[in-house]
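Protein in question quoted for reference:
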Amino acid sequence: MYGSLPIFLGGVFNTILVSSIVAIRIPTPAFLFWAALEIGLATLRLPLLVKGSRAAKSGKRAHIDLYILAAVCWAASVGYGCFITVLSGDWLAATLVVLSAAAMTGGVAFRNFSAPRLVMVMIMLSLGPCAMAGVISGKLIMLATALQIPMYIYAMTHAAYRLNAMLVQTMRSERENGRRACQDTLTGLLNRAGLEDVVARRADSTESGATLFYIDLDGFKTINDTLGHAAGDQLLVEVSQLMRQVTPTMDAVARIGGDEFIILANEMDPTTARQTAQRLIDTLRGTSFVVNGNAVKISASVGISIRSQAGPDLSTLMLDADGALYAAKQKGRSRAVLASGTLPNLYLACDQSSSFQSVSCLIRESRTPGAVAT
């Protein structure tokens, strides 16, 4: 709507130039009024375009209704100029004005195809009066405009609708591709890329801290090996649905690979974090999942890490939580362990900008159970 400023400026300059030339050639009140009207509309529309474009880019509310009204008035002004010029009998001036109007309708369709009905209205207002004037002029040859112009209006409007459909389809495809890139195809949860996107958004926000739960399903490998991979996948889907129900207010729930999950939430105090993790463990342990006709039970171990406003970054938070998860596994599984702080040896050996996958691999090679506390 606010794009293609060069086309806008070209159209405004053209109509002011043409109306001024014709007003000088035919200095009657009707033509002088048209030239003044074009200058006045240009003076109004340009600030509306600039302000609206800036507002749209910054996410603020733009006065789009006023901008559309001004655009419609401009189209009506062009149509008015065509009408009075054709009726003037000055065919040299009429040729200049009508050709100019027809050329500008291409720019109208190109600039505004995101609003095809607006394109239709503007072209009708710009060229419709030409057909009316052709019929009224009394010139037999001008009757052809009554057939040509409606067909032209239809063709340009149809083109605008086609361009609009292509734009909408492209936007939908981009949105769908973006969703798929950030979503785990099996469970519908966020994947690693989606989690990183949430982390990046939190870094740009005013959130003061975060709590990260690193979850690993206990006994999943046995179920997967015994009942098959299809059954394992079905179990992961059902567990994911249960996690969503248990943690509806969390910022993000993600599956980062295999039977490992991450839950990211706002900063909690240690007691609340432990209670939240224990509630998830108890819910999983108390739920009987039906997989391929078999009732199976599963639990989870959870590593918890909390970051305050002045605390470590999310990469370090991930290191701590995974170390705490390792401690939970070592202490007998099906329990939650809260990290006591960062893991100094691992942190120094790891680039802070490492991806979650690299961080996770590093931890598995160098875990230090003593770095966490229950």
